[in-house]
Queue: 2 jobs
Job 1
Amino acid sequence: MKNSIQFGLFILTFSVLLLIGYNIYLREITPPEQKYTDLLHELENKRILSVHFKGGWATTKDEYGRTYRTYVPDLQTLIPQLISKNITLSAEPDQEAGTAAFMKYVLLAMLVFGGWLLFSNRSGKKLPFAENTRSKRFSPVTTDTVTFEDVEGIAEAKLELQEIVQFLKNPEKYREIGARIPRGVLLQGSPGTGKTLLAKAIAGEADVAFFSLGGSDFVEMFVGVGASRVRELFDEAKHSAPCIIFIDEIDAIGGRRSGGTSSGASDEREQTLNALLVAMDGFSSGETIIVVAATNRPEILDPALLRPGRFDRQITIPVPDVKGRIKILAVHTQKIRMAPDVDLPSLARSIPGFSGAEIANLVNEAALMAARHDKNLVEMADFEEAKDKIIMGLERKSVVVSEQDRRVTAYHEAGHAIVGMILPDTDPIHKITIIPRGRAMGMTQQLPLDDRNTYSLEYLLARIKTLMGGRVAEALVFHRLTTGASNDILVATQIAQKIVCEWGMSETMGPIAYGPQENRQAPLSELSEQTSQAIDREIQHIITECYEETTAILTKHNKFLHKFAEALLLNETLDAEEADIVYRHYVREREMERKLSGVRSE
Ligand code: ADP
Ligand code: ZN
């Protein structure tokens, strides 16, 4: 790929060095110049012993052995004078020595050739002979050995990508049925979560060519280079279809376009982005090429990239949870010789927040530690040592969540989940996690409230209580308030607001539309100061009541709260089924206790 550049550079340097050397040599053998009058003067004083003529130049040698070069304007008059003075004369034709002249031309040719080789490649043009020697800038990487089995802990993403693999393997089937084939897939997730690996695995599974390019490769100093590279890449890919084009860090070129005045750098970026869009739009439906791009900042991407026909499939690659980490550890420890004392599940539990790349690094570091200690098996102690080393590095980057924060988050999320599970009239819990994501420390997923459905007052109040569950649990267990509940409180307040002002569900305020908070208006007249205050009091009343009821629920089911929080701390993520297992376990225990206390009181 880089051969012709290197070759050009080599030729250029080589010929420049030769040229310099040749010139030094010439200077060495060329005597200094002197004026014609000085020559005549020397002649007068009879100091000259011999003269050598070449092309109008006379090289004189005097009695001290010094030689000079002089240009002679009138050979006709000078030569008889020299002869009369018995000076030895010699001459040669006016031509550079054959080899020297030849050398010069060869050098010049080499110089030009080397320069051309170098610069024609920079600007992205193809060299006439590059086709034969196959020295292409973009050539596919072999990925036969990478399969989905190498990528662990992201089962959902793999499932979604399975379809892409099927399509690459058998495009005709899809075309015949008239299905629109995806053009681009955007993988979004933190660094090291396996996006590149996953893209390679798609190619490996489907057994197609894999081209890759980093977003920052595009953005060079020379305007137009990035754009021509994109064209070149897509050109190359078309010859090798079916194939995958992988663009890492697409945000480097795919950031929102400014639209207004712009600097050189962003000009270049925009040109590159436009070239990419043109290239993607320019696929004919007969070409089986899928563009996979990766980013950890999807929010800054230009919306044009996400339009249908471009990167319309977006797949989130999460940081693995504890089960995922066990599997990733298993994949990477296959390559090393492990002592039987290594306990992967407990190791996985001790590295919350580690990405796939960090786990791969951990395994490698542990192997290095073992080798350093002259062991022939990697022991648990080596893993511990390697882990401490890596975590220390991570803490400096403050990626690691402190144990206390994890506990608070676990109780907070458990609070939401338990209230949601205990109260009737709630949506089923979908998933609870304490893996931080973006600014959120954890998350309890329920179906979102939407405006299309109708909801009962009971449902809405249960919703507010579920939202309060996080804050209440924190207050009950830690006797401390944190800012972690700010969004919950905002959403709860908005619901209470709507209950009173939009949905007319408040007994005291009656079925009246007071309008949204921003511009509360009575249907007929401006709201009086009094009404406005009454509304605020009513909203406050709803929230306070819900808060108190939530406190009662969590106090009563206090054991469930602890059980659930412990389960979260251990597993990090619980799905609906697992949450239900914890619940049933709790219910059984409570019944047992009741029976036992019944026996005792009898
Ligand atoms: P990204 O492209 O998301 O930054 P990479 O795919 O480059 O991450 O991951 C770097 C390395 O980390 C991979 O080559 C692999 O060894 C390891 N790795 C990352 N994620 C996983 C995973 N989910 N399963 C197995 N190994 C992984
Ligand atoms: Zn919350």
Job 2
Amino acid sequence: MNTGKEVHEGLEGIVVTATAIGHVDGEKGQLVVRGRDIEVLAETCTYEDACVLLWATPENARSLQTDLGIARRDAWERVTRLGDALALPDAMEALRAALAHVPSVNDARDSVALAASAAVYVAAWSRMQRGLEPVAPDASLTHAADFLRMVNGQVPGAALVRGLDSYWVTVADHGMNASTFTARVVASTGSDMVSSIVAAVGALKGPLHGGAPGPVLDMLDAIASPARAEAWIEEALARGERIMGMGHRIYRVRDPRAEVLERAVEALATAGVRTDRLDLARAVERAATGVLSQRHPTRALKANVEFYTAVLLDTLGLARSSFSAVFAIGRIVGWAAHVIEQRTKKRIIRPDSRYTGHLPG
Ligand code: COA
């Protein structure tokens, strides 16, 4: 049975909407968010700046910092009622369950509440995993500083805060990726912001999307020394495995975010923070790039954002089990911007499919 409709598995190359939020040029390796290159934003902006920029809100970063601080306190009041959700052993499952409890008010309020709640819940989850009491938020701090404080129990130094801000700004938005598309599909039905973001968390959880940075660190640990990198990569490919942190649907050059995050790790090293895995990561990236280019001479498979996410978040002292959830805290900013933009389209996203079964009669 073939009804003659052309199928685009994976929707590769299909343009599903027009957006003023961001632009990804996979050939040039360029990521632009609201008219600015990601390299510039990552160096100068905070999480709060990213919210102002992406949500195009009339607020400034200072007032948004206040709003996020108040919203973190509100989220904290829900923590004790979220015992079962936050006790789930997988950080993304815990985040998905906990965010589902955020009350839906309106898009502007929900965006702030979700961004704030995600930070509070991921921090609480990571402490509970270590058998520690969660730490209450300090509304006077920036989002990045307070998150690190809620995880580690002490106010972080400026270099660590800068590192996390750079990371969150770098991953805030990235075109029509699977989780952003998911958020837009849910929003297109007229559903609320909280439902859209919870669905997007589910999409980000997959290892082909946001689930890669933890496994990248596992890989670095397994390789352990630069001399073993090439043989290890060859063996993994022979077992039919994919090399985590390598390859991308859109980029045909090195993901520009890998560059930005590698530089953020270097900045931490310069500030005196221990960056144990940087040299190893560079060696593994070189080996993986070489081996993959031999196997796929016509398909460029280079480091993606997840590769140096692993190294950066590890350097910031975060547990690998929390990496995808920390990614989600940053990406919520982009998801919310896309939900708000999707509202203006006033059209449900509803593609078609080709039936391959039998027809009656
Ligand atoms: N390791 C080994 N081989 C890879 C690979 C990787 N990381 N990424 C792609 N390939 C291979 C595929 O097996 C395929 O080979 P084939 O043509 O012999 O079947 C070829 O390259 C094309 O891959 P394809 O699956 O068409 O790419 P995609 O655009 O659908 O997938 C990713 C993009 C990101 C899902 C893919 O590169 C991947 O799985 N990467 C590892 C996971 C990861 O780092 N995810 C984070 C993304 S930001």
